[in-house]
Amino acid sequence: MVDSNPPTSTRPYLIRAIYEWCTDNGYTPHIVVSVNADVRVPAEFVKNGEMVLNVSFDATSGLQLGNEFIEFKGRFGGVARDIFVPVVRVSAIYARENGQGMAFPVGDLAVAQASGLGIAPQVASVASDSEPPPETPSPSPRAKPVLTRVK
């Protein structure tokens, strides 16, 4: 018998696995988030529609790495803020010290719909003095995700 429900996404499991690997080896796990209206982060720290978040035990309070959402309290400029990130908006998780980790495609409406979130792939507008980044061509369907170090 074939199950009519789509399989659960591997993304949250891989995020938790890389997070655990980082902490087990004394590294500082960071996630890169593609920000849109469904992501709750301090807008003043968003650059080019993305934000890098330190999700280490020392930097967070009440961290929950769920299957659909990542939630925690973090301090930004000395002020505690509630952070809420749908897992489909995480584009990478990596160790700050050596850059090892994993990248994921983001903004894929099919992934968001398959997870039942109905999240639109648009990027929230963020006030910035810089020019918007140039548009990049869509990767071919067989292109592998690439992890880039974000400083």
CATH architecture of the domain at 11-106: Roll
Q: Strand share of the residues?
A: 25-35%
Strand order of the largest sheet: 2-1-6-7
Major β-sheet, in short? 4 strands, antiparallel
User: Count of helices?
Assistant: 2
Distance between the termini: 49 Å
Q: CATH-wise, what's the superfamily of the domain at 11-106?
A: SspB-like
Spans where pLDDT lies below 50 across 5 or more residues: 109-140
What is the tally of beta strands? 7
User: What integer is the average pLDDT?
Assistant: 79
Name the shape in a single word.
Answer: globular
* CATH C-level category of the domain at 11-106: Mainly Beta
Question: What structural class is derived from the secondary structure elements?
Answer: alpha+beta
Helix content: 10-25%
Encode the helix/strand succession as letters: HEEEEEEEH
CATH fold description of the domain at 11-106: SH3 type barrels
Rounded to an integer in angstroms, the radius of gyration calculated over CA atoms is 16 Å
Describe the structure.
The chain has 151 residues and is of the alpha+beta class. The chain has a domain at 11-106: SspB-like (SH3 type barrels, Roll). Helices cover 13% and strands 28% of the residues. The chain has two helices and seven strands, in the order αβββββββα. It has helices at residues 11-24, 109-114; strands at residues 29-34, 50-54, 60-65, 69-76, 79-86, 90-95, 101-103. The strands form two sheets. It has a four-stranded antiparallel sheet with strand order 2-1-6-7. The chain has a three-stranded antiparallel sheet with strand order 3-4-5, covered by helices on one side. A hairpin with a 2-residue loop joins strand 4 and strand 5. The protein is globular, with a radius of gyration of 16 Å. The termini are far apart. Residues 109-140 have low confidence and may be disordered.
